[in-house]
């Protein structure tokens, strides 16, 4: 059983660390964005980068192009200077394995800087199906955020993983470059990209689930119809 907590590291100074959140962002929505800003406010990283994949490994091919998903992600983050986009998976092409991305970033930032991979509970629960998943923790910390509809009901492989790597406090993520898992409860937002695609397909409103510029982009390019 995993207990999720709410953190506010009592520290106004910025904390060193590279924070990233991977995803298909098909399209990016307020569940992603609110996750990013709540993590920034609570953990005090100077920035958080969204990493759109080129080709998701565990779902079908998106109906819109990687460039369109990237453009929507760019539009979404433009209102907060702390948010950024990392285009390496789209530039790399092929199946987007997180382990390749983490290795790549680690080689850029050096061995001692904390690298924090933010992921939702649904993604975390699927971790044992990821390519080379046991190695991820050698390169980064995992910051697992709550997501409505997904309970932390761990299968045995993940229980053992958590026993080995679970941090006792969020402070531990600042004290080592990688190797810790932390569970964080965020404001619950029951928004998903699949829900937005389904609404668009039915010609129903998608407003207020995602940033207005992204909504307009979808309407203008008639995506997800
Ligand atoms: P789809 O419905 O197509 O599966 P999605 O909404 O799950 O899309 P992804 O791009 O697959 O979006 O998610 C990227 C990351 O963001 C994942 O780690 C996922 O768990 C997390 N995430 C997505 N939506 C939320 C949300 N509403 N709350 C918390 N985390 C979320
Ligand atoms: Mg999903």
Automatic annotation (TrEMBL):
Residue ranges occupied by any Cytidyltransferase-like domain in the UniProt entry: 20-198
Swiss-Prot/TrEMBL keywords: ATP-binding, NAD, Nucleotide-binding, Nucleotidyltransferase, Pyridine nucleotide biosynthesis, Transferase
Keyword Nucleus: no
EC number annotated for this UniProt entry: 2.7.7.18
GO MF terms, alphabetically ordered: ATP binding; nicotinate-nucleotide adenylyltransferase activity
Biological process (GO), any one: NAD+ biosynthetic process
Record has Transferase as a keyword: yes
The protein's annotated pathway: Cofactor biosynthesis; NAD(+) biosynthesis; deamido-NAD(+) from nicotinate D-ribonucleotide: step 1/1
Gene3D superfamilies associated with the record: HUPs
Catalytic activity, reaction form: nicotinate beta-D-ribonucleotide + ATP + H(+) = deamido-NAD(+) + diphosphate
PANTHER family attached to this UniProt entry: NICOTINATE-NUCLEOTIDE ADENYLYLTRANSFERASE-RELATED, PHOSPHOPANTETHEINE ADENYLYLTRANSFERASE
Protein family per UniProt: Belongs to the NadD family.
Summary of the function given for this chain in its UniProt record: Catalyzes the reversible adenylation of nicotinate mononucleotide (NaMN) to nicotinic acid adenine dinucleotide (NaAD).
Name of the protein: Probable nicotinate-nucleotide adenylyltransferase
Species of the source: Marinomonas hwangdonensis
